[in-house]
């Protein structure tokens, strides 16, 4: 019997390498892989039906699911997680010495419906008592792709008012960075793509001078390593192959375990003290912070969904169970 072709798109992660290289597969399915660093392009391709399986912005999944507009459904596999304290920058000349001093200022982000930005806004309000109502929130775009949900509006429930950046640039990233450089905003929350440009500018500094220490403390207090991306697949594919969601969960769990073993067992050519680094992480995390499965991540998802509700990302109240295919709600690694 011929294998069913699956168009799969992914960024390169150590936890997905065995899949992307064809070392791990789901019997009966033929992965046609697009491996790219163009993350917004992956999201847009999934939304437009160009991919059958792909990582998806958790924020975008919630946005579309809450509005009944999602043709794709999630699986509780999270290929990208990242602390975001170290991704907030401000101008040195503005006298911003601590997070609380940002309250009432102009804070910018690349997009409103962006998982990293949702976490950063929520964290600033939740952890550092920044006023949602008094602070001016600026964005360069609403979604990850230009023609996303035209004519729709986002209405924050926490009193936030959204302003559009006026700075010019060839793309969302350039407009956002220019807004910080030109003083249109006092602070800017970014992703890893903008780090080289911001770190090279002598007039710009991180809001948190010691982000790793702050992030470790945040984890100890909350047990949250923020989820960025979730694995998603097209609903019409699930209708044809209802066994596929759970099989993909098992596949990605196996690939993650391979990566964890590889990190422990394979000598490094790029790190002098890899074992010390891993030991330091284990001391902080105690358990696996990269765990897959709904129950292992319920506290993370509950927190993020509360941020989405406050910021208008979700149109209606939504439970974590509504994000994932029913066959994967109780699966564990």
Secondary-structure blueprint:
Elements: E1 4-10, H1 17-20, E2 29-35, H2 39-47, E3 53-57, H3 58-66, E4 72-81, E5 88-91, E6 106-111, H4 115-128, E7 136-141, E8 161-164, H5 172-181, E9 187-189, H6 195-199, E10 204-206, H7 211-222, E11 227-234, H8 235-240, H9 244-265, H10 274-285, H11 298-311
Parallel strand pairs: 1-2, 1-3, 6-7, 6-9, 7-8
Antiparallel strand pairs: 3-11, 4-11, 5-9, 5-10
Helix pairs in contact: 4-11
The gist of it:
This protein is α/β, with parallel strands linked by helices and 333 residues long.
Describe this structure in words.
The chain has a six-stranded mixed sheet with strand order 8-7-6-9-5-10. It has two domains: 4-82 and 226-328, Periplasmic binding protein-like II (D-Maltodextrin-Binding Protein, domain 2); 85-222, 3-Layer(aba) Sandwich (D-Maltodextrin-Binding Protein, domain 2), CATH 3.40.190. β6, α4 and β7 (136-141) form a beta-alpha-beta unit. It is globular. The protein has helices spanning 17-20, 39-47, 58-66, 115-128, 172-181, 195-199, 211-222, 235-240, 244-265, 274-285, 298-311; strands at residues 4-10, 29-35, 53-57, 72-81, 88-91, 106-111, 136-141, 161-164, 187-189, 204-206, 227-234. The model has no long low-confidence stretch (mean pLDDT 95). α4 (115-128) packs across α11. It contains eleven helices and eleven strands. It is of the alpha/beta class and 333 residues long.
């Amino acid at each position: 019997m011929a294998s069913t072709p699956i168009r799969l798109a992914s960024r390169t992660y150590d936890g997905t390498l065995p899949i992307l290289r064809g070392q791990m597969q789901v019997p009966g399915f033929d992965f046609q892989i697009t491996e790219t660093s163009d993350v917004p392009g992956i999201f847009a391709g999934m939304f437009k039906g160009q991919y059958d399986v792909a990582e998806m912005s958790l924020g975008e999944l919630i946005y579309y699911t809450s509005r009944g507009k999602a043709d794709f459904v999630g699986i509780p596999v999270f290929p990208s997680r990242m602390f975001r304290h170290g991704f907030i920058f401000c101008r040195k000349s503005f006298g911003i010495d601590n997070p609380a001093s940002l309250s009432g200022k102009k804070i910018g982000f690349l997009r409103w419906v962006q998982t990293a930005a949702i976490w950063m806004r929520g964290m600033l309000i939740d952890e550092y008592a920044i006023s949602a109502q008094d602070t001016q929130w600026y964005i360069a775009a609403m979604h990850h792709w230009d023609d996303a949900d035209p004519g729709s509006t986002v209405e924050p429930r926490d009193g936030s008012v959204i302003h559009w950046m006026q700075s010019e640039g060839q793309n969302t990233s350039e407009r956002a960075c220019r807004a910080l450089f030109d003083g249109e905003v006092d602070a800017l929350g970014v992703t890893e793509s903008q780090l080289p440009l911001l770190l090279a500018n002598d007039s710009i500094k991180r809001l948190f001078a010691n982000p790793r220490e702050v992030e470790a403390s945040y984890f100890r207090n909350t047990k949250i390593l923020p989820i960025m991306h979730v694995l998603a697949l097209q609903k019409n594919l699930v209708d044809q192959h209802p066994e596929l969601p759970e099989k993909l969960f098992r596949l990605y769990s196996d690939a993650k375990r391979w990566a964890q073993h590889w990190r422990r067992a394979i000598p490094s050519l790029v790190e002098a003290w890899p074992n010390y680094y891993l030991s330091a992480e284990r001391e902080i995390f105690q358990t696996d912070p990269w765990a897959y499965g709904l129950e292992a991540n319920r506290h993370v998802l509950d927190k993020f969904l509360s941020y989405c509700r406050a910021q208008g990302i979700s149109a209606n109240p939504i439970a974590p169970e509504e994000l994932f295919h029913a066959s994967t709600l109780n699966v564990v690694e």
